[in-house]
Amino acid sequence: VHVLEDEIIVRAFVGEHLHLRDVEVRVDRSPPFITVTLSSPYEVRLWFVGVRLFTMTASATMYEEAVG
């Protein structure tokens, strides 16, 4: 699986299950590890204007294994 395909899969999961908008997905492979980092702005709506307060960021690193 190529990095672009990984990002598409992660972005689809985030959109369906986490309901975050404007998510930046970064997939870094450094064998034998893979790291996925998500960043999303946190906004508050004041009247009809969105005010960006900060950017939420989370990452996870796992050992990559061949399956099958």
Q: Describe it for me?
A:
It is a single chain. Helix content is 24%, strand content 53%. A hairpin with a 2-residue loop joins β2 (33-46) and β3 (49-63). The protein is built from 1 helix and 3 strands, in the order αβββ. The radius of gyration is 15 Å and the shape is elongated. It has one helix at 3-18, and strands at 24-30, 33-46, 49-63. It has a 3-stranded antiparallel beta sheet with strand order 1-2-3. The chain is an alpha+beta fold.
Uncertain runs: none
Strand order of the largest sheet: 1-2-3
User: How can the largest sheet be summarized?
Assistant: 3 strands, antiparallel
Strand content: over 45%
Distance between the termini: 14 Å
Helical content band: 10-25%
What is this structure's SSE topology?
Elements: H1 3-18, E1 24-30, E2 33-46, E3 49-63
Summarize, please.
The protein has 68 residues and is an alpha+beta fold. It has one helix spanning 3-18, and strands at 24-30, 33-46, 49-63.
Structural key phrases:
single chain, 68 residues, alpha+beta, three-stranded antiparallel sheet
